[in-house]
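Bench notes, afternoon.
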Amino acid sequence: MVFLIELPPEIVQHVLGYVDPPDLAWIPRISKSFYHTVTGNASLFRTVYLNHYDNPSKPDDLDWEKALKNAVRLQIICRRDDVHNKKHELSFVYDAVKSLLENAATDTERVRQTTHPASRNAKLLSSIFKDETNQSAFLCRSYIYERARQELTYANFSTPHVDHQKSAHLHCLYGVPMLYAHPETHRTRRSRMGPYACSKVYDLRQYTENTKWGPFFDDATDRVDWEKVEAIMIVIGANLRKLGLTKYPVCKNFWDLPFAGTWPGSYKALPVLHEPEPLDLQDPYGITGTWLRVVCFLDYTDFFAYNFTSEDQPTADVPRPPIDVGEATRLILMKIRVTRIEPPGPDDGQELPVVHFEGISRSLDDSYDENANSDLRGMRGSVRLTREGEVRWTTFSVFSGVERWRSESVQIGGVKSAKGVLGNWFDKDFDPRGPAGPTAFWKVSDKIMESSGYRALMQDFLPLIQDAPDETTDFENGQLEDDDDEGEEDDEPGLELEITGISWVTWTDD
């Protein structure tokens, strides 16, 4: 009988390459022979890593041993039962999750739809954060969650906190809005996060010249304020859920599947019959195509009262109170194409160019669109990197040749991610009295030449929503069940998505 250690070294290494990553730590303790085989063996760590995780796009830049050990430590930390035994590991978890996503790769052999690309790294992270104690320990630590749980004072309102930012960024990468302040305990209507997120999104004090009225810090650096992005995600996610839109794959894959495409290059186009335009081949951001957009807003009377006429307006260092007065949600189909590419400016990230685009957009809810009976809206804008390497989108909505609305947004997951873009919309002249609100858009197809040429028609959108999932689907994030206080009647309207011709009923009122 031949023992494993008596085999040739190349065979031993080949066998050890299939060991589960956590078990690899124990093997050097078996014998001196195994110790010398494993210790410092970069080739072995590389083999084990690639047998269990994605093959990174830049393998030469990866420390295989460190990456493997960090992935194992992440799993060990997240297996702890109690929130308090692991919440102090937020900084490590943040770095480990970001590393796994930055080195994630879309499985091109399994690309059936661009909206939910497959990745072994993303699958691992999804399984880890299915645990609600991990959600509470690492995803719900930003200011608005601590405020909802009454865990801090208003003195922290105007000063960004590193842990708040890391938790909010993790939450955005997770991609599924955590709609309750206590994910690990019974969720009640009183612990809903929507009103607290609205208090940040609809507070005009958040919109300043230094922030460019977008989700950036108020210091003119264009650094992304992830707590603002998180609040936008919560508001939009809550409204989509109320409308029942998360039942449909075109929304579900973006708002109810953890880590769905939140890594660079995760968007992989399905095969198309037409040849791409020359500018499209030079565009690193993957702009040309059809995008679905969501815009939420308050009735202007409520918006104005909240910001200007309510009694006891708070001072600058105190947040506005939670607001829960009902919002409108509008769905918009955008078709855009690249028009110009130019070098980055001095205030942009220098790694990639600035790409300009134009196109058209049409509200899918004509009954609430004052411009629906006129010509289609024009759409123009640009995409560039910020100095810290985030993807910044600027869009303008054009009516009869005149720019009216503007938005500033960031792309979750990096360049050409499938997740999409989150940001703020506002008056293009930065009207100090508003209105303003949250917006999101994501790519649903590389095609724009459908129907009657370069136009947006309802039949272009219907194939994306026609296959709704079965109502008994088990949503992994556990956010879709109605958790009310015991014995308390549900007084919220059970809104359903209603399609009548091309009119979508999209007003939500609590």
